[in-house]
Amino acid sequence: MRATRALAARPACVLGASALAISLLAAGIAHASAPPRASLSPPSVQPQQPAAPQQPAAHPKAVARPVRYRVVGCRSRGQSAYLQGPYSKRVAIGFDDGPATITPEFVRMLERNHARATFFLIGEQVGAAYRDTLLRELRDGDVLGDHSFTHPDLLRSGGAGIQLSSTLHAIHQLTGYTPCVFRPPYGAYDQSVVETARSLGLATIVWNVDPTDWALPGTQAIEQRVLAQVQPGSIILSHDGGGPRGETLAAYPSIIAALRRRGYRIITIPELLDFRPVYRPCILLCDGIGVPRAEVPRDALIERAP
Question: Per the domain annotation, does 120 fall within a domain?
């Protein structure tokens, strides 16, 4: 009874305070456990910029290269061997048995004297070491000819077909040029050799001027012999290989000067015989010997590029 009375006797404010405290405590717990309320004011939104159009990857511009023309051979004719050309104040020099270590000096000698020649090449000597020299000859307007592969006497050895075709292949592989003239070693030939050469597109070329420079008679003797034998349309035999050829090299500046004083033009054997050069268009594969169309000879045959 006392306890009940005591409780009943407590002031109302005490009970009210306790109830308020309990109520506040419950509200605090609820507030702490509730998720935060979203802000009533919307966040500031930055306007989205339109994406720039994607540029295509840049490609290097193609550079137009001018078309040039390079000599690739010549077209010959004739069913017999040529000892000389038409009777006119023109002569042609043929150097045999190269290429050799002295051949570049022959090329420079011709350049200094503004003359051209025909170089008859031995196929087994046509190698990479001479590529620049042979291309330089072509660039200067000289002509490359076939002089067999191993320099045999074709009348005794036979096998003219393989000797000539192997040399043609060697020259073409190294320079891109295919000869149209052939000189038989030692001047040894018969009609069968001529016909074999003809079947390969080659004209057989011999000579009517021979200073026998291969025997090393001396520079003055070489000069005198050439000038004593030469006549209009002559084909002159000499050598840039097959032995020491310093005498021949030293003789030719005087020979060229003397021939010009006599009114001769010094040209290649195909020019002397009116064989037509063959040119082909080129852009990248000109090997440094391509020329503009205006510099291609008027009588040239133009082949289509492969």
Answer: yes
